[in-house]
Amino acid sequence: MSGGPRIAVVTFPGSNDDGDAMLALELLGAEPFRVWHADRALPDRTAGVVLPGGFSYGDYLRCGAIARFAPVMEAVGAFADAGGPVLGICNGFQILCEAGLLPGVLRLNRQQQFICADVTVTVESTSSAFAGTWEVGQELVIPIKHGEGNWYGNAELVASLEAQGQVAFRYETDVNGAVGRIAGVTNEAGNVLGLMPHPEHAVDALLGPTGGVAVLEGLLAAAVAPAVAG
Amino acid sequence: MKATVLIRPKQGILDPQGEAVVGSLHKLGFPVTSARVGRLVDVELETDNPVEARAALDRMSRELLANPLIESFTIELGDDA
């Protein structure tokens, strides 16, 4: 294998983008490995975590609501609290919001439809651990495919996120009704990132846009930096 | 004892499901101006103590059944349901 940072890709029942996340991370030089939702610990030398897209636990109750109580989530929470980089993609973003590791919540798309399309997002902030090579205003084309990607936070929360540079990505146009066209946010410490677009589907020019490379390289950069004690 | 938790989208929160329902009701000729779609969870608790039951239901609603950012909930215990 590559010898790059060891990235845990968590599989929940109903995850379906874990395989692509593995492939994309490997392509970019990481050493990804799988972790099962029922695992209670992350392996030693885990340098980063990806919660992939899908429909964990059938999206029952609300998307992400059941997955946040999966046994592995306690370990993911502890990893994040210790400064470890955690990336949530689509359903992974929904799970991180339900778990309280990221602010806000994802609601049904305003147009009441599942959307599958390449969209342009712009980098809005470089204050997170993921932003190594990003530039504010940089445009990335990455596909979205979701029915519940309509991010919501109240006015007070949005103002505070904007002020603290926690809005990582913004859709160029209003694609799903998300407040402030917000496509991705980070936590206050800047080591947890969630976004609705799928960077793992956008890393190979043969298959379409490659806007996902910058996002995943951000995770790898954060995973190399020794932020986690122990 | 039995209980029912009713979960509703908070006032002012966009409810795409409700809007879709309004659209369909209009097509059927019903002159409605609004519909909001929530969720109903019937729960059977082991306890028969209403105070205990209400406290547990309140906690489970906050922790799992509803997302307080966008949803409100009401609890109806068996007797008043």
Overall average pLDDT of chain B: 94
Give me the number of helical elements of chain A. Answer: 5
Global geometry of chain A: globular
Poorly predicted residue ranges of chain A: none
CATH names the topology of chain A as: Rossmann fold
Topology of helices and strands:
The complex is a heterodimer of chains A (230) and B (81).
Chain A: E1 6-11, H1 18-27, E2 31-36, E3 48-51, H2 71-81, E4 86-89, H3 91-98, E5 105-107, E6 115-123, E7 139-146, E8 150-152, H4 155-163, E9 167-171, E10 182-186, E11 192-195, H5 212-224
Parallel strand pairs in A: 1-2, 1-3, 3-4, 4-11
Antiparallel strand pairs in A: 5-8, 6-7, 6-9, 9-10, 10-11
Chain B: E1 2-9, H1 16-27, E2 39-44, H2 50-65, E3 71-77
Task: Describe the overall structure.
The complex is a heterodimer of chains A (230) and B (81). By secondary structure, chain A is of the alpha/beta class. Chain A is 22% helix and 25% strand. Chain A has 5 helices and 11 strands. Chain A has helices spanning 18-27, 71-81, 91-98, 155-163, 212-224, and strands spanning 6-11, 31-36, 48-51, 86-89, 105-107, 115-123, 139-146, 150-152, 167-171, 182-186, 192-195. In chain A, the strands form 2 sheets. In chain A, strands 2-1-3-4-11-10-9-6-7 form a 9-stranded mixed β-sheet, with helices on both faces. In chain A, strands 5-8 form a two-stranded antiparallel sheet. In chain A, strand 10 (182-186) and strand 11 form a beta hairpin. Chain B has 2 helices and 3 strands. Chain B has a 3-stranded antiparallel β-sheet, with helices on one face. The longest helix of chain B has 16 residues, at 50-65. The A-B interface holds A 61-62, 65, 69, 98, 104-105, 107-112, 150, 152-154, 177 and B 13-14, 16-17, 19-20, 39, 64-65, 67, 69-70.
